[in-house]
Amino acid sequence: MGPNDTEIVRVFARSTASPSADPTLDPKEAAQIVVEAEAGDAVFRMGVPYEVDVTVKDLVDGTNIPTTPAGAVTGQLSQAPWNKQHSAFVFGVAASELEKHKGHQCEVYATVYMGLQEPDASFATSPRFLVQR
């Protein structure tokens, strides 16, 4: 990654109580989607605008699983919540939403979009995970 880039380091799903990725999620408990991203030194110091967005896809029925916040997290680099060059963004998934997808394989698609004049984008896909039956 160069000084003028942003890049997704990794994206994963986890139970709310877990610090690391979980290959299975309990539909009786809320879950989280975590996007770890890094900004190059130059764009970070300039405070360039950015957007971080996720889509949680049920691979069995093709539907999307809603997250909170809904839609993209926006801001400027070097300001909260992206106030360190390496930052993590957490999106919540309600247990009531997971309940609708029991026994299904899912995947997360994450996007970081940065800049105005010459925008840059980074894309990542999470490891697949299973919503328990």
Our count of domains comes out at 1
Helical proportion? Answer: under 10%
Computed structural class: mainly beta
CATH homologous superfamily label: Immunoglobulins
Count of helical stretches = 2
Residue windows where pLDDT falls under 50 for at least 5 positions: none
Provide mean pLDDT, rounded: 94
Rg, alpha carbons: 15 Å
Strand content: over 45%
User: What characteristic shape results from the CA principal axes?
Assistant: elongated
Number of strands: 10
The CATH architecture can be given as Sandwich
Sheet with the most strands, sense and barrel status? 7 strands, mixed
CATH class: Mainly Beta
Tell me the distance between the termini.
40 Å
The name of the CATH topology is: Immunoglobulin-like
How are the SSEs ordered, and which strands pair?
Blueprint: E1 6-15, E2 24-25, E3 31-39, H1 41-46, E4 49-58, E5 64-65, E6 73-76, E7 86-93, H2 95-99, E8 105-114, E9 120-125, E10 129-131
Parallel strand pairs: 2-10
Antiparallel strand pairs: 1-3, 3-7, 4-5, 4-6, 4-8, 8-9, 8-10
